[in-house]
């Protein structure tokens, strides 16, 4: 039970500290985690699937795509490096860091040798040709 009187969802305690200037209590912060799930769009034609995945702020070398039959797995990792100079101190960092992955199954198997991946402006584009039969998983090289 809260003993502080409140107005709606805001207590007097919250209102008191809201009146301070924004940034009064800024502490060094080590960033937010990546989003919990990679957002994707999947389109299908008669011969292939086209996948667009939003992965902003990630180097293409830190993105890994694996194809195993109809299963596609996308993994991304952002590393945060601390860089401080003697004449400055870091007050806040809100850039993403960490790792995230997403797996999804397509309605048909993929011809993994003909599959391609391209990363541009924070969007990973996969071209995944359909195939009959099955093979083991393979990691795609991102252009």
TrEMBL record:
It comes from the Bacteria. Residues 31-143 form the SHSP domain. Gene3D superfamilies: 2.60.40.790. It holds the Pfam family HSP20. Coiled coil: none annotated. InterPro entries: A-crystallin/Hsp20_dom, HSP20-like_chaperone, Small_HSP. Belongs to the small heat shock protein (HSP20) family. PANTHER family: HEAT-SHOCK PROTEIN 20 FAMILY MEMBER. This is Heat-shock protein Hsp20. It comes from Chromobacterium haemolyticum.
């Amino acid at each position: 039970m809260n003993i502080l009187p409140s107005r709606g969802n805001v207590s007097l305690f919250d209102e008191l500290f809201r009146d301070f200037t924004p940034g009064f209590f800024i502490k060094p912060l080590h960033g937010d985690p990546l989003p919990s799930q990679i957002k994707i769009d999947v389109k299908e034609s008669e011969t292939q699937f086209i996948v667009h995945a939003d992965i902003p702020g990630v180097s293409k070398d830190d993105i890994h795509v694996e194809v195993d039959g109809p299963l596609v797995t996308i993994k991304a990792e952002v590393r945060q490096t601390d860089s401080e100079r003697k004449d400055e101190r870091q007050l806040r960092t809100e850039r993403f860091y960490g790792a995230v992955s997403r797996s999804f199954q397509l309605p048909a198997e993929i011809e993994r040798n003909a599959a391609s991946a391209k990363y541009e402006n924070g969007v990973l584009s996969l071209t995944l040709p359909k195939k009959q039969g099955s093979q083991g998983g393979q990691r795609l090289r991102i252009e």
